[in-house]
Protein 1
Amino acid sequence: MYVHYLLSDPSSPSSSPVLSCSSGIQADDDLKSMFVGTVMRKIKSRTWKKQRYFRLQEDCMTIWYKSKKAGNTHSTFSVGDVEAVREGHQSEVLLSIADEFPPDRCFTLVFRGRRGNLDLVAESAGEAQSWIKGIRKLIDNLENMGQREKLDQWICDWFKKADKNRDGQMNFKEVQDLLKMMNVDMNESLFDKSQSGTLEDDEFVLFYKMLTQREDVLRVFQEYSGDGQKLTLQDLKDFLREEQLREDGVQQYALKLTERYEPSDTARMLQVMTFDGFLMYLTSPEGSIFNPTMVELYQDMTQPLCHYFISSSHNTYLLEDQIRGHSSVEGYIRALKRGCRCVEVDCWDGPNEEPIVYHGHTFTSKIFFKDVVTVLGNYAFKASQYPVILSIENHCSVEQQKVMAQHLTQILGDKLLKTPLHGKFPIGLPSPEDLKGKILLKGKKIGGLEDSMNGVVDDSLMGEVSDEEETAEFNDDHHRNDSIRHRVKKSKQSLSKELSDCVVYCKSVHFSSFKHSQIHSKFYEISSFTESKARKHIREAGAEFVLHNARQLSRVYPSGLRTDSSNFNPQDMWNAGCQIVALNFQTAGVEMDLNDGLFCQNGHCGYVLKPAFMRNIDERFDPENPQNGGYKPLSLSIQVISGQQLPKVNIKEGSIIDPLVRVEIHGVPLDQAKQETRYIDNNGFNPVWYDTLQFTIHVPELALVRFVVEDYDKTSKNDFVGQFTLPFTCIQPGYRHIHLLSKDGTSIPPSSLFVHVRITKLT
């Protein structure tokens, strides 16, 4: 570990923790050169390239930088905010200056959430490498921290913010400010026993214990501990059986937990667990509400593609809204790195016979189609090896369609699937396992798969180019705004044979009716539905929609009226078995929380196997009436015990949150429910509830559970604090921690909830 606490001289009247790097750092040349600092160019565009002085602070967590000009203010960012470091010309900005600076001097810092990248050019390749390798080491160090170390780090970060005079010590005024920053409202007399206005050494110990104590966990520990000091192997086994409902291999599991989480060598040798070890277990992934075996790839990946929910993005090129938003290849990189497996391009004729991508007839900026394809080739399989579907909304002339086909073939090479697997005519869709490492094109096709395999496709055959998705959407919504309607006139253009030949298993077709599809549809055909059309079909013929989706793929996308890039509720569409539910990944909110929640299982691979009753064409599952068939409802009881280190939402001086927890069930209409705890006054640091919430889950296989923390406000809308969403089927029963995420879906350590979960059958 690079980071730990050092205590100043105990005789000092105001002992306090100071963060520093361990001596092991001395041996690391990359980090030593980062401490010294480096002048690098910060690049924003071809014309904006300015020198900045960058330096790693002593805490090994903060990077400080400022302009070379004297008097300019400095800026900082935390290593914890950096998701990845890309080497070379791996961003739009650095690609635009590729002729000016060689790739070995360039790198990009990619931040978590939706924050923009930081593009840098070092003075030499050696300096660039020092920063690239150094930051990666620091990121690895952070990711390997245990929950207790994250808590220490979090407290230390606040100490630094509160230490206004930067003397590395804390007077009482600074301690009071610190507590307010940390969401604690506490009387000074609780720990200023000497009434000296400063923290004496023993008062510091009391203060630190006050910040880190867990009375709620101690209660559980003492309930199972014979002497209140330790858990014997038998005590721990009793706890695992009775509370965590562990059934198999309990003895081996108890020994494994002791070996892994017990910090005391003596206790480990005696095969007992101290309170510290118990707390470390409960805050670890094994003590999480999310079953760790389901975080890994655990599902059968050999079923036909239509038997999976597929993580899908809408208008992937947009980083903002649908009218004036910025188009960027960065949208594709972000979506693919999140495990998205279906991305979309809107293609239009561009200058110099180069097709462009943007939201047609709007003021969104434009990017080249070939740049999107290049990014797809580079990033498609970094997060997951399973196939990527490229959904093409094609508005190009035949000439530029040929250029598109050329780019796809030349840039993607063998990754692009251009013929059916094994060269044989298939009888059904292949599986994600069969298609590993392959990119599939979804678009219009001349004739059928049979025709192209038999070589009967004539060059003169015509195909309708555009899916005309927006036209359908505007008609559905009875939109009468002529200024927007003019852009969606239906056009029939020729489809180039070259582009048509790139489409194999995902031929876009117009949907007529479920009866027509049952008689005439081919397994390789896919229809797209506007959100309102999909809802109408679910209401009127839910069981038929589920059956349709057991045979072939469906795609649902947001209304054309959502010009702000807002999202619809994807759960409604998953309830009907729709596989490709396309969302605006750039827009945070409950809809993307649900998407992240569903796809955070199964190795984040972007594919989740649908329940058996949605894959079997002999079953008649209707999401509107789920009681038919093998109906097995369950009872879910959640006791919300406590919260830990909840983030501040209001930057107003001295404001402290009044947190409440809401538990939401998202599933079939019968399961949609929410309940909340009472709110706790002025305590975001360690609020305690012990409130129990009860739910009945009618279709557990489709349910998602969302935990939301809000700051209660009696006069206005509550402020969002944090959330965590997971599939009901991935919940571990017993005493569990829930590690909260920000609105952007990124982790906010050490913020968590502590709950007790019980799931029972309803007889």
Protein 2
Amino acid sequence: MTRRSCAIYATGIVCAHLLIVGIALVVAQVFQTMIHSRLKKEITLTEKSQMFEGWKNPPPPVYMEYYFFNVTNVEVFLAGGKAVVKQIGPYTYREYRPRENVTFLENGTKVYALNPKTFVFVPEKSAGDPEVDILRTVNIPYVAVMNELDSYSFFLKTLVSMYMNGLGIELFMTRTVHEVLWGFKDPLLSKIHSMKPEVDEYFGLMWKKNGTHEGEFVFHTGEENYLDYGKIDTWNGLREMSWWSSNQSNMINGTDGAVFHPLINRNELLYIFAADLCRSIHLAYVEDVEVKGIQAYRFAPPSDVLMSPKDNPTNEGFCVPAGDCLGTGVLKVSVCREGAPIVVSFPHFYQADPKYINAVEGLSPNKEEHETYLDLQPTTGVPIRACKRAQLNIILKRVQGFPKTKFINETIFPIMFVNETATIDDESASQMRTMLLIVTLVSNFPLLIVGMGIILLLVLVILFCRNRQRTTVKDETAYTQVSSKPDEPSETPANQPMKNGSYIAMSPVEAQKC
């Protein structure tokens, strides 16, 4: 056997093995299964100290952008006209949210943690100085008192209204942005505090929320089921709430939005419990996006999350008392926040009934600026970009006994909205790209084997064709006549017969004469 033949046989054997092994690995999905099993195992908080530290101290910076609606025609609104508002902001704060008092429970299957939040003003990302900029907005303590007295007698409400007028307290107030946001000593609340000490004399939308937490959380670590990773087991000791009017609405579903299980697919719904909204919401897949070179799935709340119960009966449980429902795009949360009739929505009433948008002049909802979304890396489930946007509103209506409300039209009045954003930092993005590259190479290793087998198959075909061509050329011989001339006598040995005529030569050249 020649060297060329040995090379052909060896190439064929290696090619066959590579193709058989590669195709078998592709069909069996051995490497994909191995990677998925590894992810399901190492995603738990107890098995990856690095991931645990990242969970305790998230590296991406979180920014809170506060926008306010400054009322420019209070007198017109009190006289029965349409309010005109002008958006001011943002006033941006860096949010620090480490997890503290972390304690593992039940053999590492659950983890207890507090999540205090601290806010630091960032002037270079802000449109003004909150301690200087003046804001005219609804006097929420005033509305809270009216709301509390709504069921009382007309005589009592009239007395309280006269007393408030004597103090010079109006339905709308003028304060700095810092006061409205972080608190000030309110004259009305101070009077109530003197009679009822349990009532705080300070008011602010974020009063006592700087350096505090939203409650005690117990999370699943995913030790028993990777799909439970990060899901909330209890909040303030509760597995379900009690202030809504249905069991489904009272459920505490999903994570706190900071982590999700790995291997996310486009068809699933993701649940987040929002303590500030007093409810869980779900997010659905929207589109594929790319953030800093990382492929991600974008999830966002679909329109049915805040849809009217008439169009989405599952939302009937958020009507308190039962049957007392608002329209599409708004949710009354005063049931879990005693005091004023607070309503939440998306900014500028995005995805809400047009009647709420048209009730106030100066609103212009759009998807790019007002949609809440979450961009998740599907393999790891890690959020790489997030935008949580919510608007705070208050219900203004006529209340008997309070003459200043005599002419106003009932309105869900916008106060402010917040844009909470976070994007993966460059260092973490680089680490994730490297990790995903390794995962991709390992997952596609069987395809590399098949590819090598195909290349060797092509080499084998080329070698075989060239070898066959060489053999054919070698076997083709020229058949030529020795001579066409008559035989000439020649001296030959006596014992050798004379040859005449023609004979076949084994060479294409002319044969020599005998």
Protein 3
Amino acid sequence: MDSATKDEMQPSLLPGSSCPGPEWPEQERAEQLARGAALKWASGIFYRPEQLARLGQYRSREVQRTCSLEARIKSVVQSYLEGVKTGVWQLAQAFEAVQGTREALDQAHGLLQGMAEATETLKPLREQVAQHKQLQVLSQLLPRLRAVPAAVAHTRTLIGAQRLLEAYVCLRELEQLQEETWAPLGGLELPVFEGLGPLAEALGQAVEAAAGVAGRLAREDPALLVAAVRVAEVDARHTTSLELPPRDWRRRCLQALQEGLERTHFGTPLLLEPGALAGWLEALRVALPAELATAEALVAPCCPPHYKVVRLWAHTLHSGLRRCLQQLLEGPKLGAADAFALLHWTLHVYLGPEMMGSLELGPEADVSQLEPLLTPENIEQLEAMFVTQIQVNVAQWLQKALDGEVAEWNREQEPGTDSSGFYHSPLPAIVLQILEENIRVTSLVSESLQRRVHGMALSELGTFLRSSSVSVLQPDGAASGDLAPVEAGLDELQRRICRLVLEALLAELQPLFEALPSRRWLSSPELLDDVCERTVRFCQDFRRVRNPAVQLLLAEAERTVVLQYLRALMQGRLVCRGADERIQAAQRLQNDAAQLRELFLGLGLEESVQCAPVLLSLRDLLNLRDPMLLGLEVAGLRQKFPDVSEDHVSALLDLRGDVSREQRLAALSSLQAGPQPSLSAGHRALFSLVPVPTPALSSCLPSGPCA
């Protein structure tokens, strides 16, 4: 492009206009700095005089440099001005283009406003078109829509006739027609389809009803069960464009299977009469395995494999039974028989080979890993309930048995005897047999229940006499100390019986001992002969009693006679008048001791347990000739009989009749001299059971109990 053309394209300046450069403060400052730098440089160069000769050279060189810089500055300024001119020209061109675009946009805006007004005028036309399309669809579907009410009624008829598959096909056709009309009509719901919701619910209820009686249908009408399950499965895979809540017929079908099974076996509240629980459990023992066998053989082939029918049946029956038993335990208190039956059934029968552990049932029927029918708390409750009621029943029965036994022994005729001629009562053997049977039966349930009943049996045995048969109730491995409470109770009972028996003997002997001792007693054995005769006659019935009870009765009878003899001696009825009477009294004591020994040996009492030898010790005290030696004799008496007291010794010294006060005090002091004897384990009290009249104060020691 030549310069003429370029000048034409560039904008020309108006006449008289100028483009003066702007005033720059920086330029002035730059000039000042340049002048200062030049002055500094010149002062440095021309500081020495010899350099002034070269001033012309410096001047010419600086002139050349200045001209070069000015040329370069002019070139740059010229280039800058040309660029400014070009930019101004381009801005003018762009301004003209913007103006044209603005005008075009204004025109387009006006056109758009006109089109919007036209669109508003076309809106009714669009609505007419949409209505026309809907009418066109309705006109095409009108024959099928007219048939909808009849199809709904026909589907209800099929449901009522339990033709579930056909009913489902009809329902799907109606729902498909609803989908075909729903989209073209913009989601508009036609009144003709309002009955489809209740119709589908009726079909779902029919499916649930069929599933609820699956066991019966599997035997009587398996086709209906298969149809119900197929409807639930097909509907589970069906999708729809309609905005409807999911029907979830598969879940409802499975739930109906479980509820129907529970309703069949555990639907009615369990209200059983006392003792009837065992029959109900026995019925379950037969019914539940049969139900599982039916599920495996008949119901499972009618259902898809993923239903796992046998497992579903087993778990449903288990949970229903567990809930039923929990409700039973929350109700009225069970009797002993019902508690025992429930414990035995749940712990041993339910999981045993007769029921859920049967080899005929597959592994799917295993319920051993589920929650147990009874919790540990339930088992504890039932065991405590059983033991408490059994204890009450045993106590009542024992009381009635004892009342009957008392009535039997109080009859006029002689009690029954065994083959050996001893009095015999079958009551202890019967009681032990019953208690042993209860313990043995509880071993069928659990070891804890057996321990509880065993403890109860031992506590109840405290009311019966000792028997060597008690050992049969002691379980293997149990400590011998378990029978200690029973033995103590039986010993106490035997002592009470002995006291009751000997009270009658005592009533016969007391009048005879009123005349002893006396001078008639000194010269004749007649008084003791009467005592022995009464005693022999009273103890004749003891021959019908077995050992060791007969030994206990004879020992207590002999002890009673000796105690009455000692009691009579301590009453102070006789005082010897001289040595001859003391010798007679000592001889009488020796003869009486021998007579009593022979009497009870003849009755069968062992000599080692007899108390009559105490009379020989008293004989020695009376037979002593030197009263100064009484202290030694009294000390010997104290060693043999630790329970002898000062009062007893004083009474015996009174019987001698020749003891002075000093001698008495010396003899009594020997009781406290030396070590006091200790009571041995086998010692039988004698003197401590013999009362003594209060002696005169003159005969007491200052430190004695009578002082």
